[in-house]
Amino acid sequence: MLSYITHSPAETHALAKRIGAAVKPGTCIAFFGGMGAGKTTFTRGLAEGIGLPDLVSSPTFALVNEYHAAGCMPVYHFDMYRVTSPEALETTGFWDYPQEDSVFVIEWAENIADELPQPLVKITITGSGEQPRQITVEGEEQLDDFGG
Question: Is 115 exposed, middle or buried (0-12, 13-18, 19+ CB in 10 A)?
């Protein structure tokens, strides 16, 4: 497990960009953290590290946003805020998305913790508003050449 403190959205974005550059196809990035913790900011950095243009927005109302660009693996960005059971997850079409050559990014992963796909990188973010963020990364062995 790795642990970081970030003091601004820019620092959170920079850490996420480093992780995005190291993420392997087929990986699930699962976010645990409260409202306003910076999950979408982190996802923007991940996408940039993967090589995707700055298209990331919160999928709160859409359930999933898809990000594609030539030469980059796709990112499927899920919001599980309203999904609270395996049955509800099944009705979303979650399992129909191709994980093998893409990256799954899941906000509110605690709502489907028992159903999270593998391989898994768990990112827990605590803090909100102007507070520093405590960010822990578990499953970092799923990241290529990530020195922490």
Answer: middle
On the question of a cis peptide bond just before residue 119, with omega within 30 degrees of 0, the verdict is yes
The CATH code of the domain that includes 100 is 3.40.50.300
In-domain check, residue 60: yes
Residue 11, CA atoms < 13 Å, CB-side half-sphere: 11
* Residue 147 within any structural domain of the chain: no
Is 148 among the domain residues?
no
Number of domains observed in the structure of the chain: 1
How far apart are alpha carbons 78 and 104 in whole angstroms? 7
SS3 10: helix
Q: Give the range of the structural domain holding residue 87, as residue numbers without chain letter.
A: 2-142
User: pLDDT tens, position by position, for the chain (148 residues)?
Assistant: 899 999 999 999 999 999 999 999 999 999 998 887 888 889 889 999 998 876 666 655 668 888 888 888 899 988 898 898 888 888 888 889 988 889 999 999 999 999 999 999 999 999 877 889 999 999 888 888 776 5
- The answer as to whether 38 is a domain residue is yes
